[in-house]
Amino acid sequence: MASKRYKKLPEKTKDLKPEAIEKLIPEVKKNSTTKFDESIDLSFQINNKQKKNEINLRTVVNLPSGSGKKIKVAVVCEDSKSKTAKDAGADIVGSDDFIEKIKNGDLNFEKLICTPSMMVKLSKLGKILGPKGLMPNPKLGTVTDDLQKAVTNSKSGQVELKNDKDGNIGLSIGKKSFSDEKLIKNFNSVIETIEREKSNITVKGELIKNAYITSTMGVSYKLKLSKSI
Questions:
Q1: Does residue 203 share a domain with residue 179?
Q2: How far is CA 138 from CA 98, 150, 153, in A?
Q3: How far apart are CA 65 and CA 50, in angstroms?
Q4: pTM attached to this predicted model
Q5: How far apart are CA 62 and CA 57, in angstroms?
Q6: pLDDT per residue as tens digits for the range 58-79
Q7: Number of domains composing the chain
Q8: 66 with 198: CB under 8 angstroms?
């Protein structure tokens, strides 16, 4: 049953004609009427000319304005590199002992970074880490010897961009408290990343069929993209 707050929000906003991001951000913010700082979220539908399972988009976007979320980052590395990881801001750092904890189900983190030489051991825990989307991946920059860069990126607003089995892509571009300009910067970064990744995918026509913007507890509006992607 809808709450009194939700009943006050505009109805059938998805039926409105698509509008540019600059026009919709103020509308979405206006509908963020809860007491907490709601996320501003994007949702993309992949064009249904594709067979859904043929599209495998998975990369990361560095949001220039940050994500507004505090991410708990863990690092698996050799003891000699643990100081670098800690200095960069990693919340949990360990080697064999930490791998053993993960094996026993201790997953008290949201992002896991690993050095290439430790990945051999960590890769055996695919059944534990895989389903939760925590397995480090070279393509996502989470299997690397450059721990400072990986930890800094994770902490400063790097988000994952990937489609699910139904051809949907969802991610947050910041918080209601962000200025419109900061949210637009993040949005543009997402669009540029999708455009870049599209060149690596065999696509018949456009990759994105529809795009929407909403807030955590708000209503959804259809986005007009300035160019086809």
A1: yes
A2: 20, 11, 14
A3: 33
A4: 0.86
A5: 16
A6: 899 999 999 999 999 999 999 9
A7: 2
A8: no
